[in-house]
Design brief:
Strand content: 5-15%
Number of helices: 28
Strand order of the largest sheet: 13-9-16-20-19
Shape: elongated
Largest sheet: 5 strands, antiparallel
Distance between the termini: 21 Å
Radius of gyration: 30 Å
Structural class: alpha+beta
Number of domains: 2
Number of strands: 21
Helix content: 40-55%
Length: 833
């Protein structure tokens, strides 16, 4: 038989016929059209060297930079953060910034010194956006006949993922979910347990780079998806479930999947038993009550969904806009959706009810595992937006690509087109000073941090003008496309895709320009690999004379909430965090502050020194209140031990062991105590027993046993401090290091392991012998190092698998089974097409 070649052949409806010979070219071109959006978006970020203006996007990028920079300088993955709350574990922060590319780049070590780290981070985000696009494409190919529908849906999904302000809620919440669902479907289609393992393993991997309390929400959405899928497609699914066989290999894959989830959980909790949580509204074990669960951060109103046509959002945390065509086609899709896709609509409704703090939310709070750790219901709405894009795909395919419909289809064109023209008219009327003020009053109703287009009248009017213009264009297009012949309907589909592409990526570009700043040439060294300096003393609070802060302020508007993670980026070593939000501190430092303020050690009802709010001093936008940590800055023992009035490396002729934390707190609180005696808590290391003198009141509390020695710092990075010091005294000397104590700290002195004692409630001390001493403090957990290596390997394998899936998409050989979900509902469930 003569081989078929690509041609312009079409069926009676004008839909291109996908022949075997032209499938590869068509699939490749269409998916490349989808992939071009994230790539071009990243090119703008890289070529203009743009930097997030503030909020969580700023925190996310700067935290990623810290870990990547430490890997470039030391060749190690940071497990410690010396500039936050005078030293804290990096477990949580590594978990929330990790990603597939980031995990792999961490292994690059000192090779990273030759790259601009910001560019690497942006390309890593681009890879994650392509994973979202590929997963969405595979899900579309399973439930929609035409690849044109997949282009429309994937464009709306990927294009509406705006992460510059809020990486977590507007992207990380859902970016791997479509691919997770794909592997879940493959498990049901093939009854091969390895696909079940891939589904759960990817769920575990998505928790790295996202907030830990996403787990209950994501797991619920995935379980609800497949429950609704099975319920709506029982005749097709039941034969496959009956074919399920239990073998030893099945048990192996189940155990591996369980280990994947367990490793992710363990990784996020290593060393965190020493953390104290300052997040308001949570209990000591991080849970929340029903009221906080339903109301925290404000509730989502049903009128907020008008953003889908207004193009205005009152939040920095999420956006609901997904293109002007998404709303009308979503309504149409809900009306014409078939049984095979009904679960998509039902899941969108269910998740929307969850996000709107309804009875569904209250029920899940009580019955779903780990849901008591979650409390940001309204911020789940971007996931509803993603699901609505798939529902809109059903409307798109019915309106433009299906032969059935007849007069109903013409009526749909008229009704939808007319509705969009009315919307355009209303938006045009609203685009004036009075309308802008009305919009701002509505937008300001929602708590949180309002972006500029929610507070500036000129910006609101400009956005309304654009929305009116695009609504007018969409309405006119829908009306005219209803008048064309059936044969020309495919042309209308292409025009609809073109309109969606221009609309959504114009919106994304405007958002990019509004929410990022161009780094000047002199400031670009900020994102280059930079050695972490060792500060001999700490500073009281952030000031403008910090060199890296000066470079940051030279180009950045620095808007939105600022976090204590900023210190990792500007290399600022504060005694506390008076001007920035601090959510966690290690328990020894928390107790030290409570001793300073005369509070009970175990009383966690409020922060040390009391709850308070303060404004960030360099913010140029509206005043933002942030919750920080106080420190008693008046001269006294606290400022000495914290390295403010004395160097962080101090020396004492003797150290005294006290019996308990309570006894030490009482002694340090005495007015006669001047901070010139070194007190230790009992050592947990058997090798350190008896090293210190037991305290029996042998010295007055105002005695001074400090010594003057000059240390030389040889190496300093996140996990290591190496210094040399010569003990010129004939007796042994105690060295005190003003960095918070943790059980995972170890020390080697002159090549011999030495115990690290907990000193002055919060810090570290080691015993030096007469003569030269080389002291190496090292922080690390072997288990954490092992898990980091494991996740890096898994990330590499997942990128290879994602690349293979994209290659199959480009060839037109998507690994999906659509035969059981044809328009007639018939087909052989075992045959893959």
């Amino acid at each position: 038989m003569k081989k078929q070649t690509a041609s312009s052949a079409a069926d009676s409806r004008g839909v291109p016929i996908e022949r075997p010979a032209d499938r590869r070219a068509l699939a490749g071109l269409l998916f490349l059209l989808v992939a071009a959006g994230p790539v071009l978006h990243t090119l703008v970020l890289v070529l203009q060297h743009r930097f997030p203006a503030g909020h969580d996007g700023f925190q996310y990028i700067t935290t990623q930079w810290y870990f990547l920079n430490n890997a470039a300088q030391s060749g190690e993955i940071a497990q410690w953060m010396p500039y936050m709350t005078e030293g804290t574990v990096a477990t949580f922060w590594y978990g929330v910034q990790a990603s597939f590319c980031q995990n792999i780049l961490m292994c690059g070590g000192k090779l990273l010194r030759h790259f601009d780290l910001l560019h690497l981070l942006y390309w890593g985000m681009c890879v994650d956006e392509l994973i979202l696009a590929a997963g969405s494409w595979l899900l579309c190919r399973r439930f929609f006949r035409s690849r044109l529908t997949a282009v429309f849906v994937c464009t709306c999904v990927a294009g509406s993922s705006l992460w510059l302000d809020q990486t977590y809620w507007n992207f990380r919440l859902y970016y791997a979910v479509p691919l997770i669902l794909h592997f879940g479907h493959r498990f049901l289609e093939t009854i091969q347990w390895r696909y079940g393992f891939l589904c759960l393993n990817l769920l575990a991997m998505q928790t790295l780079g996202a907030l830990p309390y996403f787990i209950p929400v994501t797991s619920f959405v995935i379980c609800a998806y497949f429950a609704l899928y099975v319920a709506c497609n029982w005749p097709a699914v039941w034969p496959r479930l009956r074919a399920l066989r239990w073998r030893w290999s099945s048990l192996m894959w189940i155990v591996l999947a369980g280990l994947s989830l367990a490793c992710a959980y363990k990784y996020l909790t290593i060393g965190t038993d020493q953390l104290v949580n300052y997040s308001p509204g949570r209990t000591g074990d991080q849970k929340t009550d029903l009221r906080g669960f339903m109301e925290w951060g404000g509730t989502l109103s049903w009128q907020d969904w008008s953003e889908m046509v207004l193009g205005l959002t009152p939040w920095l945390d999420f956006s609901l806009y997904a293109g002007m065509l998404t709303a009308p086609l979503g309504i149409l899709g809900a009306l014409v959706i078939k049984r095979q896709r009904l679960h998509l609509l039902l899941l969108a409704i269910l998740v929307a009810l969850f996000a709107h703090a309804t009875f569904v939310s209250a029920a899940l709070f009580h019955v779903w595992p780990m849901m008591k750790y979650f409390r940001h219901l309204s911020l789940v709405s971007p996931l509803v937006r993603v699901l609505l894009c798939f529902v809109a795909g059903a409307g798109f395919e019915w309106l433009f690509l299906q032969e059935s419909g007849g007069g109903w289809k013409v009526a749909a064109h008229i009704l939808l087109g007319g509705a969009m023209l009315v919307t355009a008219f209303c938006l045009a009327i609203l685009a004036n000073p009075w309308g802008a003020n009305s919009c701002m009053q509505w937008l300001a109703v929602n708590p949180g941090f309002s972006p500029r287009h929610a507070t500036d009248a000129a910006e609101v009017i400009s956005r309304l003008h654009y929305s009116a213009a695009i609504a007018l264009l969409a309405g006119t297009f829908l009306l005219l496309s209803g008048l064309v012949s059936t044969r020309a309907r495919a042309v209308s589909a292409w025009l609809a895709i073109g309109l969606a592409l221009v609309d959504i990526y114009h919106y994304k570009l405007v958002y990019l320009l509004a929410r990022s700043d161009v780094m000047g040439l002199q400031a670009r060294e900020l994102t280059q690999p930079s050695p972490m300096p060792f500060h001999a003393r700490r500073v009281a609070e952030i000031t403008a004379d910090n060199p890296r802060m000066q470079k940051l302020l030279s180009f950045s508007r620095f808007e939105g909430m600022q976090y204590y993670t900023l210190n990792n980026f500007i290399f600022l070593d504060e005694v506390a965090h008076v001007r920035s939000r601090a959510d966690f501190a290690l328990r020894p430092f928390d107790q030290f502050l409570r001793v300073c303020f005369g509070q009970e050690l175990t009383s966690l009802a409020e922060r040390p020194g009391g709850n308070y709010y303060t404004n960030f001093p360099f913010q140029t936008g509206p005043s933002i209140l942030v919750t920080g940590l106080r420190f008693p800055l008046e001269a006294g023992p606290a400022t000495k031990f914290a390295g403010l009035s004395c160097p962080k490396i101090q020396f004492f002729s003797e150290a005294y062991e006290v019996g308990s934390e309570g006894e030490l707190a009482r002694m340090m609180s005495l007015r006669s105590f001047k901070g010139d005696l070194l007190f230790l808590l009992p050592s947990q290391d058997a090798g350190g027993a008896g090293a210190a003198t037991r305290w029996h009141g042998q010295q007055p509390f105002d005695a001074n046993e400090r010594l003057e020695l000059v240390p030389q710092v040889v190496r300093f990075d996140a996990n290591n401090l190496i210094l040399r010091v010569t003990n010129s005294y004939p007796q042994r000397v105690w060295m005190f290091y003003s960095d918070v104590w943790h059980p995972n700290w170890s020390a080697v002195i002159n090549g011999t392991p030495a115990p690290v004692h907990r000193a002055a409630m919060a810090y570290k001390a080691v015993l030096l012998q007469p003569g030269p001493n080389t002291v190496h403090f090292r922080f690390g957990s072997r288990l954490m190092s092992l898990l980091l290596a494991l996740f890096s390997l898994q990330s590499l394998l997942w990128l290879f698998l994602a690349a293979w899936l994209v290659f199959q998409i480009l060839r037109g050989n998507e690994p999906v089974d659509r035969s059981a979900f044809s328009e007639s509902g018939a087909g052989n469930p075992g045959k893959l097409k």
